[in-house]
């Protein structure tokens, strides 16, 4: 299992993913789940993945292969697509095709595979957009009413996002929100684990403005986690029945 979250704000986009993949309690590994495709100043696309590792890795590999194809067009390559909507369609179609191929191969074992993705980005002259792509290839989009999307083990980290995240939230506060959302998930579910990948895409930059790998013993993350725990305990003790 995994947990990934993306925020679509007036000032830009903030994205966070964990890196834990497991196939049972005795088979845990670390794999990157955040992938960036960038032509700095022209377009930037970041993809967060959750679900079957074979499905997500094959999907990313096929997207890269399509980009590198000498005959690539706006219908096949996310780096040539005319809009972010078309980018989401290409990724959705690729994900659905890969899932169907692998499902067919796994049919004899009666094991079903699934994966979902968050697709966030902007092209020069276009608006920032963020989509949640389902295993079947269909997708929904983040809006002003719901300016964040989650995939994977999302339930533990959702309450803080519901309470504090708005389109007007600053980039700094948004980073704090996604990290505390992840902290809540880490404390409640062992299938989500460090290290974490954090990325910020500022509005109209069309590139990743900052990225950070947060390791298990990162002192800043540990300090934030402890401060959040103390604030919750203090707030709880002050509430009267």
Automatic annotation (TrEMBL):
One Pfam match, given by its short name, reads Proteasome
Task: Give GO BP annotations, semicolon-separated.
Answer: proteolysis
Provide the GO MF annotations for this entry.
peptidase activity
Name this protein carries in UniProt: Proteasome-type protease
- What are the alphabetically sorted keywords of the record? Hydrolase, Protease, Proteasome
Cellular component aspect of the GO annotation? proteasome complex
Q: What is the lineage of its organism?
A: Bacteria, Pseudomonadati, Pseudomonadota, Alphaproteobacteria, Rhodobacterales
